[in-house]
Amino acid sequence: MSLPVSRSIILEPPNASQTLKIAIRLKAIVDCAVPVAIEQKYVDAADSPIVTNVLVRKCFEACGGTTEQSKRKFQGCVVFALLTVTRWYNDLADDELYDSTLYGQRAECAQRLAVKIIDGCTDERYLFLVMLAKRYTINLNGIVSTPFNALEMAIDQHSTIVISCSGFQRCIKWMWRGWIIQSGENPNEYILYNHTDCPKFWTHFNPERVKTPEYQNLLQLIVSLLYVVAYTWALNDGGERPLRRWRTGEVVFYTMTLSFILDEATKLFHVGLRYLSFWNVFNNSLYFIVSVSFLIKIFGGKEEPLLVANQLLSRALSRDIDIIPFVSNNRTSYRLLACCAPFVWSRLLLFLDTKRFFGIMLVVLEELMKESIVFFVLLAIVLAGFLQAFLGLDLSDGRADSINMVVNVLIQTVLASPVFDSFENFAPPYAMVLYYICTFVISTLLLNILIALFNTAYQHVCDNGSDEFLALTAKKTLWFIRAPDENVFVPPLNIIEVIVTPLSLVLSRESYQSLCDSIMYVIYFPVLIGIGVHESKMARRVAYNRLRHAPDDANEDDCQWDLSDGYDDGDEDAIASRAQVVNELADTPDFKIEGFSSEKEWLKSLKVLNPYQVETEQVGVRWELKPLINKIDTLTELVEKLTNKVDEQDAMLKKKTDSK
Predict the structure, then answer these.
(1) Whole domain around residue 421: which residue ranges?
(2) Is the pLDDT confidence value at 565 over 50?
(3) Of the residues 591, 616, 639, the one at which a domain ends
(4) What is the pTM of this model?
């Protein structure tokens, strides 16, 4: 079943070469605006004298176009092109470190221009569907790039400056709620859902609405809770039981894990390596351990496959390996399964990140893990050196009989538990001196480096907590809709999709789609009831806003200071109370402000209190200099008048001289 959608904006995107030309022009503008490295405050200030309306107009001029239609066509890719220019500057900053400050400021200038353009666009449909959600291509070195939109580029580049602006976040909010959806005809295009203002329940009782990221996130949170229950069920069966005998809890847990693996593989296939992130690797580690446990359970009692594995490992390591004692009993599979508990429980956090507390905490964890890579690289190199030194000392007597002891002691040293007694009788005095040096390097130097890296990462995230959280929610929203899928079967329900997919080879497209719709009506029936109730209630608010010519997402919060924004869903008492307050304020003439006939007239008079003058902002001058500019203007007028008087006097003298 297809959804009714709005196709009010139909603009063909510029071709790849035209997009490249626009990006080159925009780069020239930014190069001229920031010719040399300047103070950072002049770039990132809200009233920056560099990022002005003059620069914005030049950006629109750079897009070209001779007619109104062609201008809208080419200007639609301006945000995409500015983000492309940002990526160019970031690459230059990495390649040319001596000018990294200049290129960093230019990259930020390009992002600030994109923000100014986004926030200055008054046509929200054009902004959402053309500027941000439409995918464009660009010709780079003779190769046409994969189609991208500005949303994806900003998130992939982690451009928090662009992501945190109001227009970008409103677009993400509309996608999160399902007001902007993928086109049924072309999954790479985004269109408006046309029934956001329809209060009828059955209009929203549609399995296609399950594609909405908000509902997918809720479903996956529920599934994750069930996954913990299934894991606990499987684990509480115990490890001592006959080999390869399956219990119900194990079957449910392994089946759910298989569905998650299929879902990850599908999204990785559609999106590519850009889909991978720290938390994907975290999940895949869990799935890998569970898969190994599953394989051991299946093949653990069969000698032949294990003998083959022994031979392969022995050849690879050039030594005799015997893995049969480790995997030939059911206890090993159970123990591996027990080791998954921290992963299974931590997985719940990934679907709670829509709340600010959990979101920022996950961002902090991710940044700390990224920063720790530097530490582990240094640690691996240092440990490799000391390990080889200790092994050389062990071989000095012609025997290598202390390998396990050396490895254990080095690991304990890394964990801040050095064991000095182990080296008292080991190649004295060389081993003890070497171990003192090793302990100092690891415990004093490297661990303090790790603490400093963690402190820097934590401080950076906390200083930009709101922007980082907004970037996380935007990434999560696109995570749900970036991989096109005609029929959304949330894991573990995607197992059903795998079962019915072969029928698409024998059924017509319409028949197969009808079958999938029928299945989704059945499996999502309770969910669709909740969706229908929620969206029909929300539709009344949208219809109320449209009657007032307000944006669809307006009046969601009843502000106490605004007596005209309230929307009360059927609450007659609240409506009557609001009307009474408005009437009381209107019927008190003694309360009017002296010298003003109406409240609106007085509010207009407040504009003179704003120090941020439009005129100075347009010519790129800070508002603090406005008084000086006014004096200069006055002086200029006086000089012009004086010049005119002098010219008149000269003309009169010349005339008198000529007459004589």
Answers:
(1) 356-478
(2) yes
(3) 591
(4) 0.77
Q: 439-445 — which CB contacts under 8 Å span 24+ positions?
A: 439/413, 441/382, 442/379, 442/382, 442/383, 442/413, 442/414, 443/413, 443/416, 443/418
Does a structural domain hold residue 493? no
Q: Decide: 55 and 115 in contact? Cβ < 8 Å.
A: no
Q: Summarize pLDDT for 306-343 with one digit per residue, the tens.
A: 555 555 555 555 555 554 455 555 677 777 888 888 88
- For residues 614-647, one letter each, b for 16 or more C-beta atoms within 10 angstroms of the residue's C-beta and e for the rest, the string is eebbeeebebeeeeeeeeeeeeeeeeeeeeeeee
Q: What is the pLDDT of residue 238?
A: 55
Per residue in 613-653, pLDDT (tens digit) is: 444 444 555 556 667 777 888 888 888 888 888 888 888 88
Task: Share the mean pLDDT of the chain.
Answer: 79
Indicate whether 209 belongs to any domain: no
Domain's final residue, options 351, 373, 393: 351
Residues 124 and 49 in one domain: yes
Same-domain pairing of 46 and 165:
yes
Lowest mean pLDDT among 110-124, 185-199, 349-363, 593-607: 593-607
**5 confidence band (pLDDT: 50, 70, 90):** very low
Across the beta sheet with 180-182, the strand order is: 5-6, 190-193, 180-182
Residue 579 placed within a domain: yes
User: Measured over all CA atoms, what is the biggest interatomic distance in the chain, rounded to whole angstroms?
Assistant: 133
Q: Domains in the chain: how many in total?
A: 5
The phi, psi pair for 182, rounded to 5°, reads -75, 145
Residue 332's H or E segment, with its range, is helix 330-338
Residues 300 and 394 in one domain: no
Closest Cα to residue 13, out of 78, 82, 77, 85? 77
Residue at 336 is within a domain: yes
